[in-house]
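Give me the fold.
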Amino acid sequence: MKKFINKLLVNHSLIYKLFLYIAAIVLVVYLFPKGGQFKYEFQKGKPWQYENYYAPFDFAVQKSIEDVENEKKQIKETSKQFFEYNDEIVSNVKDEISSKINVLFSNLKLTKKGKSDLVKKSTAIVNTIYEYGYLEDSNIQFAENKLITLRNGNKTQDIQSYKLFKSFQILEFINSKIGTSPYTEEQNSVLNIIYEELKPNVSFDENFTLKVLQENLNKISYTEGLVSEKERIIFKGDIVEGEKLAKLNSIKSEFESQVWSKSNYNWIVFGYTILVALSFLMLLLFLRKYRLDIFENNNKVNFIFFNIILIVLLLTLIVKYDAKYIYVAPIVILPLVLKAFFDARLGLFVHVLTILLLGFIVPNSFEFIFLQIIAGIVTILTISELYKRANLFISVLQITFVYFLAYFAFSIIQEGNAQNLDWDKFLYFTLNGAATLFVLPLIYIFEKMFGLVSDESLKELSNTNSKLLHELAEKAPGTFQHSLQVANLAEACANEVKANSMLVRTGALYHDIGKMDNPMFFTENQSTNVNPHNELTPKDSAQIIINHIIKGVELAKKHHLPDRIIDFIRTHHGTSLVYYFYKKEEELNGGVVDAKYFQYPGPIPFSKETAILMMCDAVEAASKSIKEPSVQAFDNLVEKIINKQMEDGQFMNADITFKELQTIKKVLKKKLKNIYHLRIEYPE
């Protein structure tokens, strides 16, 4: 039992990755739609490349989306509009007009014939207006000759819309019927009574109109024929177009939407599981072979899997809502984020694997995979320094342009012309580009969630006005100046050997912060001839010097510096000796010295960047001891220090080649000559 527990403890990291691997597979397979997949790929206007294809079962031929939309449009244009006729309003209006005219006649001296004529005219006007009705002001739009349906209780009649009176027609009509101008006083009075009392009695019945329209839309048939089992659909070599294209699209839709039995469902899940498992296995093998430092860090592996699942989840939700919006999803954020935290090669590899997984769930998978892989490559190639916002903006424009260009090419290949472009797609690509700009706040969120560090954070940390570096400049000004010089040297070397220059510069600025604890015990901070080491034994002095590593790590953790920066503090002396005090102890004890009291605790550098810092730190510090600077002196110094570090095995764990070491030597020699360049002596 004890052995078993010990094995678990020794292999806990590998066991954790196994659980993460299984959990990721289960989650992705769960997110995938479980419909069937049509096993043939085809494109409009292209030859059918497979054997003659016959219908495996009976199915209906689906109408194209365009045909269905045209039918809907025609129904909407021809569907009747219903209006409600109100008899009660008509009755009330007639009573009011009759009553007021009678009152008017009692106050006017008119002949019996005159009164009779005015009453007849007013009655004729009202009856004519209300024969079909007076339409209230409405936003309803219709053509003047459109056939509409007028409902009056249980009675309906179809009339031409122009027969309804509108408010702007009333006055003109009354004027034409009451008599010719100039009107008599009696005629004016009757005209005013009619005009004031007339009220609309016809209103648009929107609810009933929409109900009838919906009933007509529901009657639309989405099919246009039936294909029987074993009926030929297409011959090998036939062009996929017209009726053949409609039949192929229909049977593809049948495969993807049919209800599966429990047995079929389980087989589909099993197939998805194998494919997803293979994809994630390839990712883990890639990390183990080419990115061992990431593979051994469970937090970084978590981060990679989290981003893949996040992208799969996003696309799955979009496909379930409406697959036409898949190009709005900013998938290129994935390689951007991985490049920001790791490197371009890993970013592109993970991006391609993720796109291959997404090919199972999106329509037109070949087009989708091609567009997204091209966009991912452009992303990796164009963005070199993410912390520079202008670079990101320009890169997003380039990515969007590539989307435009690739989609345009696909469209003209499929359609045979440029007239049937889906312009909505260009809008989706534009929205995709805008969403990609969200990568900067997303990186910040990931840094806080996973404790990682990006170039954007390195840029902030390398600001010499930051609190910790400002404190270093105040307490240990000599160390601060030394750190600046080392940062400049290290950045130049990193640029030459294609290392992360921003990372190594930031690490160099913080590598000696531990010297703030006892600044006067380090020669660069001693402004007088008083050396406190004169009062100490070599062993005690060595311990104070060595302790600046421990103090630096403690201070860095207190100020929440990222682990990648703390690595530079821990490794910049590796396991080398505090050589000055070691030799001094040898002199005092006749050559008998225990080296462990004078050795830095390590570890030795384990990356190209930390190795560069070790070399630059040692060379810069030693260069101050040269009393008579010369080209030969600097060349000898650089060769001596770096060769000694190589002999001591300080670079055994660092991913750095002999060729790169020679390049770094050349850069250091050149930079030291520039720094200590002697000016000519000006005459007094």
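The mean pLDDT is 82.
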